[in-house]
C-alpha cells in the first residue's frame, strides 16, 4: 500500500472516529436534557400539588433547574455552527436566546419577573416541548424513533408554542415597569462613554420583535410538520 493510500485511510478512520465521538456526545447531551427537563416538569407539578405549602415562590423552588438546563441549550447554537447537527444557525440562535433572555434578562434580573403569571405558563410549555424534542433527537441518533414520538414532536407545538410565547411575553411585561422605575441594567448620563442605554426600552424592543418573528417561526414549524407527517410516497421516502 502506498503512503498516500495509507494516509487517506488514516484520515478516513480519524474522520469516522470524530463522527462517532460527536454522535456519542449528542446522545449524552440530548439524554441529559430529557432528564433535566423531566425533573423540571416534575418540580413544576409538585409545586402546585404536594409542595404547595412549601413557603417558597415558584422561582425559588425551581430556579436552579431552570438556569442549568435552559442555559445549557446555548450549546445548540454551537452544534449548528460547527455542523454536527443540520439545524439552521439563525433559527436556532433566535429560539435559544429568546428563552435565555427570559430566564437571565427578565426573571433573574427583576423581582416582578419572578412572580409573573407567565412564568408557570412558559415553564410548562418549555418542559413538555423539550422532553419530547430532546427525546426525539436522542432516539433519532440511534435510529429508533417510534411513530408516536415523531407525531408528538411535530404536533404538540401547535398548542405549546403559543402558550410558551404568551408566558414569555407576560414575563417581559411584568418586568418592564420595575426595569423603568429602578434603572435595571441601564446607563444614564453623564458617564465616561458619553452614552445612554435604557433596559426598559430594550425590553419593549424585544417584545415588539415577537410580532414579526413569532408568525415566521410558527409557520416554519408547520412547514416542518407537513414535510415529516404530510403523508404520501414523498413523505414516506424522506423518513427512510
TrEMBL record:
Single GO BP term: sphingolipid biosynthetic process
Pathway it works in: Lipid metabolism; fatty acid biosynthesis
Transmembrane segments: 21-41, 61-82, 89-109, 121-139, 151-175, 199-219
Gene Ontology molecular functions: very-long-chain (3R)-3-hydroxyacyl-CoA dehydratase activity
Bilayer topology annotation: Multi-pass membrane protein
Coiled-coil intervals, chain numbering: none
A Gene Ontology cellular-component term: endoplasmic reticulum membrane
Compartment list: Endoplasmic reticulum membrane; Membrane
Catalytic activity as recorded in UniProt: a very-long-chain (3R)-3-hydroxyacyl-CoA = a very-long-chain (2E)-enoyl-CoA + H2O
Keyword field: Endoplasmic reticulum, Fatty acid biosynthesis, Fatty acid metabolism, Lipid biosynthesis, Lipid metabolism, Lyase, Membrane, Transmembrane, Transmembrane helix
Cited Pfam families: PTPLA
InterPro entries per the UniProt record, alphabetical: Tyr_Pase-like_PTPLA
Enzyme class: lyase
Keyword Transmembrane applies: yes
Enzyme nomenclature, EC number: 4.2.1.134
Function as written in the Swiss-Prot or TrEMBL entry: Catalyzes the third of the four reactions of the long-chain fatty acids elongation cycle. This endoplasmic reticulum-bound enzymatic process, allows the addition of two carbons to the chain of long- and very long-chain fatty acids/VLCFAs per cycle. This enzyme catalyzes the dehydration of the 3-hydroxyacyl-CoA intermediate into trans-2,3-enoyl-CoA, within each cycle of fatty acid elongation. Thereby, it participates to the production of VLCFAs of different chain lengths that are involved in multiple biological processes as precursors of membrane lipids and lipid mediators.
Family membership: Belongs to the very long-chain fatty acids dehydratase HACD family.
PANTHER family, sorted: VERY-LONG-CHAIN (3R)-3-HYDROXYACYL-COA DEHYDRATASE
Protein's name in the database: Very-long-chain (3R)-3-hydroxyacyl-CoA dehydratase
Source species: Lutzomyia longipalpis
